[in-house]
Automatic annotation (TrEMBL):
<protein>
    <recommendedName>
        <fullName>ATP synthase subunit a</fullName>
    </recommendedName>
</protein>
<feature type="transmembrane region" description="Helical">
    <location>
        <begin position="205"/>
        <end position="223"/>
    </location>
</feature>
<feature type="transmembrane region" description="Helical">
    <location>
        <begin position="69"/>
        <end position="89"/>
    </location>
</feature>
<keyword id="KW-0375">Hydrogen ion transport</keyword>
<dbReference type="GO" id="GO:0046933">
    <property type="term" value="F:proton-transporting ATP synthase activity, rotational mechanism"/>
</dbReference>
<dbReference type="InterPro" id="IPR035908">
    <property type="entry name" value="F0_ATP_A_sf"/>
</dbReference>
<keyword id="KW-0066">ATP synthesis</keyword>
<keyword id="KW-0813">Transport</keyword>
<keyword id="KW-0999">Mitochondrion inner membrane</keyword>
<dbReference type="GO" id="GO:0005743">
    <property type="term" value="C:mitochondrial inner membrane"/>
</dbReference>
<comment type="similarity">
    <text>Belongs to the ATPase A chain family.</text>
</comment>
<feature type="transmembrane region" description="Helical">
    <location>
        <begin position="138"/>
        <end position="159"/>
    </location>
</feature>
<keyword id="KW-0496">Mitochondrion</keyword>
<dbReference type="InterPro" id="IPR023011">
    <property type="entry name" value="ATP_synth_F0_asu_AS"/>
</dbReference>
<keyword id="KW-0472">Membrane</keyword>
<keyword id="KW-0406">Ion transport</keyword>
<keyword id="KW-0138">CF(0)</keyword>
Length: 227
């Protein structure tokens, strides 16, 4: 029973061919495309308003050089939100529960921010490794600690997203299993447990959106240090 709880995180395959590529490409198919008419429909207007508000809020602390990342951040935000939300549907697979996929997003984007900082302002980028006013005996130790913390950033990005979604899916499955087990024996307790399951599902919807926002927000903060 315990091993079956983790079967939902296994990448589905058909005839030995992994279907994770279809799960990743599906969100882009669901996005509405602008029509050829002068006036957009309500869905397109709502999508445009959301993207504009998110982009303005995210890029507010960045200078003009960081605004080049607006399209990338907005696309990544919509992509992660859509994948996380679709993963809450029954009999679906959530690609963002795979640490390899999240690290594939986190490492290149984090590395791009570091390379931009080293290219544009190497003195300031290296200055982040040593806080101002540090006593001389602590300089080697602090440089090592700051370097380790710098390289841990992409790992923290990927693990945070994976752990939050995985924990939520496991809790939902555990409580749903408890509801089915308790229903024939203790209907009242099963109904109360089902109410808890409903509240947990609402919480997971919020977590799916918040974790996508936090992922992109932290990338923008890393970019802010290097532009």
């Amino acid at each position: 029973m315990m091993t079956s709880f983790f079967d939902q995180f296994a990448s589905p395959s058909l005839l030995g061919i992994p279907l994770i590529a279809i799960a990743i490409a599906l969100p882009w198919i669901l996005f509405p495309t602008p029509p050829s008419r002068w006036l957009n429909n309500r869905l397109i207007t709502l999508q445009t308003w959301f993207i504009n508000r998110f982009t303005n809020q995210l890029l507010l602390p960045l200078n003009v050089g960081g605004h080049k990342w607006a399209l990338l951040f907005a696309s990544l935000m919509l992509f992660l939100i859509t994948i996380n939300m679709l993963g809450l549907l029954p009999y679906t697979f959530t690609p963002t529960t795979q640490l390899s996929l999240n690290m594939g997003f986190a490492v290149p984007l984090w590395l791009a921010t570091v390379i931009i900082g080293m290219r544009n302002q190497p003195t300031v980028a290296l200055g982040h490794l040593l806080p101002e006013g540090t006593p001389v005996p602590l300089i080697p130790v602090l440089i090592i600690i700051e370097t380790i913390s710098l390289f841990i950033r992409p790992l923290a990005l990927g693990v945070r997203l994976t752990a939050n979604l995985t924990a939520g899916h496991l809790l939902i499955q555990l409580i749903a299993t408890a509801v089915f087990v308790l229903l024939p024996m203790m209907p009242t307790v099963a109904i109360l447990t089902a109410a808890v399951l409903f509240l947990l599902t609402l919480l997971e919807v919020a977590v799916a959106m918040i974790q996508a926002y936090v992922f992109v927000l932290l990338l923008s903060l890393y970019l802010q240090e290097n532009v």
